[in-house]
Structures are given as structure tokens and as C-alpha cells.
TrEMBL record:
Keywords on record: 2Fe-2S, Iron, Iron-sulfur, Metal-binding, Oxidoreductase
PANTHER family: OXIDOREDUCTASE WITH IRON-SULFUR SUBUNIT, XANTHINE DEHYDROGENASE IRON-SULFUR-BINDING SUBUNIT XDHC-RELATED
Keyword Oxidoreductase applies: yes
Any Pfam family matching the protein: Fer2
Domain 2Fe-2S ferredoxin-type: 1-78
Keyword Zinc recorded: no
Protein name listed in UniProt: (2Fe-2S)-binding protein
Length: 152
């Protein structure tokens, strides 16, 4: 099938897409957007989190056919113009990026949280990040980054 999707505000298409291949695969391998990471392929780790029609989803669990004609926003599309989004900058400043594999999914999850709750409590932050696994940071620096981003 030919997949037509709007990604980060730009109409894109990919040919010869099998309807059952994952949106994650299409984004990374067919559309050249490697920000969302391929870790568990089971929706357990959150590394592939993207927005689909404004709702955060694990792109590894979305079949390409389900994305036909829809709107996707990836971590690459959070800060137009090639700069860093304030959340990305806060992650760097707070030391919340170590190996970086979980970071794109965390950034999207934090973006969604702060859009809904601009001044979240610690419990809100931890709940919002519960679907994102990180093996490096221990989460304290991530929570600090969220608080820093919220202050901005």
C-alpha cells in the first residue's frame, strides 16, 4: 500500500508499505526519522512514543495501515527550526540523558504531561512517566528535568 501521513506538519508518503508493519518501522526506515527508538517492540518501554492525532502512542504497536491519513508528531517535530525544545534543553541541563535510548520517548511523554499540567506535582510526573523505562538514570535526574522544564 501507499501510506500517506502527515508527520511533523509535512505531508509524507511511503510506497510498498505492508499494512501490518509498524508505524515505528515506517518512521525510522522509510521516512528517515530515527528519533523514536526501537527497543522492546511490545509497547512496554516507551522508547518509541510519538503523537498520533495528538495522543501519545507506542509507535511499535500501531500498524502502518492504522496511520493512513492521520497526523503524527515525533520528537523531531517538537522544536521546529532544528533547535532544541525547552524540554530537551532541560534534560541536557539536568543530566537526564545518559545512553539516550529512552530519551525520545520520555521527551514526548513529558511534552504531553506539561501540555496538560503545566505545574505537575512529583506524583503526577512519576505517573506520566510510568510507561517509559530507563536503565541508566534512576529517574531522579529525569524528574528534575521535568521540574526544570515546567518552570520555563
Amino acid at each position: 500500500m501507499r501510506l500517506n501521513v502527515t508527520v511533523n506538519g509535512e505531508a509524507m508518503s511511503a510506497d510498498d508499505v505492508w499494512e501490518g508493519e509498524s508505524l515505528l518501522y515506517v518512521l525510522r526506515e522509510r521516512l528517515g526519522l530515527p528519533g523514536a527508538k526501537n527497543a522492546c517492540e511490545q509497547g512496554e518501554c516507551g522508547s518509541c512514543t510519538v503523537y498520533l492525532d495528538g495522543t501519545p502512542v507506542c509507535a511499535c504497536l500501531v500498524a502502518a495501515g492504522q496511520a493512513q491519513g492521520r497526523v503524527v508528531r515525533t520528537v523531531e517535530g517538537l522544536a521546529p527550526g532544528g533547535g532544541l525544545h525547552p524540554i530537551q534543553q532541560a534534560f541536557l541541563q539536568a543530566g537526564a540523558v545518559q545512553c539516550g535510548f529512552c530519551t525520545p520517548g520520555l521527551i514526548v511523554a513529558v511534552h504531553d504531561l506539561l501540555e496538560r499540567h503545566p505545574d505537575p506535582a512529583d506524583a503526577d510526573i512519576r505517573e506520566a512517566l510510568a510507561g517509559n523505562l530507563c536503565r541508566c538514570t534512576g529517574y531522579e535526574h529525569i524528574v528534575a528535568a521535568v521540574k526544570l522544564a515546567a518552570r520555563r
